[in-house]
Each structure stands twice: as structure tokens, then as C-alpha cells.
Amino acid sequence: MTDVVIQIDDTTKREAEAIFSQLGMSIPVAVKTFLARTITEGGLPFKVEPKTDEKSPYNPEFVAMIRQAEEDERNGKFIAKTMDELRAMEDEDSPYSPELIALIRQGEEDKRTGNVVIKTWEELEAMANE
Q1: Distances (CA, A) of 62 to 16, 36, 39
Q2: Whole-angstrom Cα distance, residue 57 to residue 45?
Q3: What is the DSSP code string of the chain?
Q4: Same domain, 13 and 35
Q5: Residue 54 CA to chain centroid, in angstroms?
Q6: Considering only CA atoms, which of 42, 51, 32, 127 is closest in space to residue 117?
Q7: Is residue 88 part of a domain?
Q8: Are the C-beta atoms of 38 and 99 separated by less than 8 Å?
Q9: In a shared domain, residues 70 and 124
Q10: Fewer CB within 10 A of the terminal residue: the chain, N end or C end?
Q11: CB burial of residue 28 (10 Å; 0-12, 13-18, 19+)
């Protein structure tokens, strides 16, 4: 047997003890259960995701696409096209995915109908990092 020592604040310990007590276990038993399950699962026994701002109207995938486009532009991989040029490319062997073209079209439609809120890149970044 090996001892594992962790330091946690008093509030976390009290709250965890209350929950584990309702389940009929102590913190050491809960930690052993967590470690055994981690081994069985071959990783964490639950999904860990970055915190997202639920109030944000922007889909995290959309924000990631914007960031990738900016990175591509910095690396000289960005090609600027008008909507007419994108539409003309739909039936061609396009470097743009159909999903991206659909997303741009949806943005264009949202802008026409007033269903879009225009934000600066700084505002988008702030929302993504909240």
C-alpha cells in the first residue's frame, strides 16, 4: 500500500464529505473508487470540457473557425472571396467546405433579416474566454 496525500480547502472537504456520506463512503473510499474507475475507463470516468459562456449567441465551433481563418491569414493560407465568388465555386472543386459556405450564407441571411449581432473580434474573444 502507498499513501497519497492531497491538500484541499476546508469547504471542499466538508462539502465532499457530506456528499460521500450520503453515498455511504468516506473520502478515501471515494478517491479509491475514482482511481479504480479511471484505470477501468483508460482515462477520466467523465467528460472534461472547457467552460463555455452559455449566454453567448456564438457557437464555439464558429468561434474556432474564425480563429483558424485568422491563423490561416497570418500564415498566408487565406484567400478572400466575395459571396458571388463563393456561390460560383459551389459546383467546382472548391477549397471551401460546403459547411463553411452554408455558414457564410446563413450569416448573410441573418444580417439581412436582423437576426445577427455584429461584434468586434475583441468582443468575441472576451466572450469565448469567459
Answers
A1: 37, 38, 35
A2: 30
A3: ---------HHHHHHHHHHHHHTT--HHHHHHHHHHHHHHHTS-SS-------TT-SS-HHHHHHHHHHHHHHHTT------HHHHHHHTTS--SS-HHHHHHHHHHHHHHHHT------HHHHHHHHT-
A4: yes
A5: 11
A6: 127
A7: yes
A8: no
A9: yes
A10: N
A11: exposed
- The dihedral over CA atoms of 15, 19, 24, 28, expressed in degrees to the nearest 10, equals -50
Instruction: Match 450564407 to its residue by C-alpha cell.
Output: 105
The single residue listed with the C-alpha cell 446563413 is 106
Single pTM value for the model: 0.39
Count of the separate structural domains present in the chain: 2
Residue 32 cell numbers, joined: 479509491
Encode pLDDT of 52-94 as tens digits: 656 556 677 777 777 777 777 777 776 666 667 666 666 566 6
| Domain encompassing residue 74 | 60-128
Asked if 130 contacts 63 with a C-beta cutoff of 8 angstroms, the reply is: no
CA distance 108 to 90: 16
Amino acid at 125: E
